[in-house]
Write a structure and sequence with these properties.
222 residues; alpha/beta; Rossmann fold; 36% helix; 24% strand
């Protein structure tokens, strides 16, 4: 943990969520991570992406959208990871918390969602149109956002591995459904988890450019 990363317990409804907030000096925006199926704020992939974003003067918040008890249940049933409504409500609560904190209230917010977390990010972006300025999905399931896809106002980047055929097809359908500016970027040779050499770095580079372009610039929507 860097000397400018702090741990927080974030009250959302009747639960407290664990999060790690990193705010580099002269931050130009903040990226809130929504983790995917069976993952957590300790995900090495998302932490690697977050570290690259920090180097671009973007603050990051990696937060567990499930409590420890809920994660234990989900590890057995695999049900809560697909409860997009629950995950999105938690994410919305975290967005509201960020806007109330003196350290982060002035920072434009972007959302980075992976797997089912991408659907929750898109639902949250639709619900907080004034707050969320950009969305990036990594190997995401935007189709699970349902009708909320039509309500997203933030420019959205969908990143998918070339060898992740089913998810690639679902992302193409989502891009064609969305009314806002949505781009699909395909990472050559990559599978769903971007474990192939250099592929996760390409994700971080694409995400970094997207967030710096849209968070450091004036708001493009009301």
């Amino acid at each position: 943990m860097t000397d400018w990363m702090t741990a927080h317990r974030i009250a959302v409804g009747d639960v407290a969520l664990e999060g790690d907030l990193a705010v580099p000096a002269h931050a130009v925006g903040l990226v809130l991570f929504a983790h995917g199926s069976g993952s957590s704020r300790h995900s090495p992939r998302n932490r690697a992406v977050a570290a690259d974003l920090n180097r671009l003067s973007l603050a990051t918040l990696l937060v567990d959208l499930l409590t420890t008890g809920e994660e234990t249940v989900d590890a057995r049933t695999r049900e809560l990871r697909f409860d997009i409504g629950l995950l999105a409500d938690r994410l919305i609560g975290v967005i509201d918390w960020l806007q109330d904190q003196p350290q982060t209230a002035v920072l434009p917010i972007g959302l980075f969602g992976a797997s089912t977390g991408a659907a929750a990010a898109l639902v949250a972006a639709a619900a907080r149109r004034d707050a969320v300025r950009a969305v990036v999905s990594r190997g995401g399931r935007p189709d699970l956002a349902g009708p909320a896809l039509l309500e997203v106002a933030a420019p959205t980047l969908l990143i998918v591995g070339e060898r992740d055929a089913l998810v690639l097809d679902l992302n193409e359908q989502a891009r064609n459904t969305m009314l806002v500016s949505a781009e699909l970027r395909i990472i050559p040779t990559a599978t769903h988890l971007f474990e192939e050499p250099g592929t996760l770095q390409q994700v971080a580079e694409q995400a970094g450019r997207w967030f710096t372009d849209h968070l450091a610039a004036p708001a493009a929507h009301a």
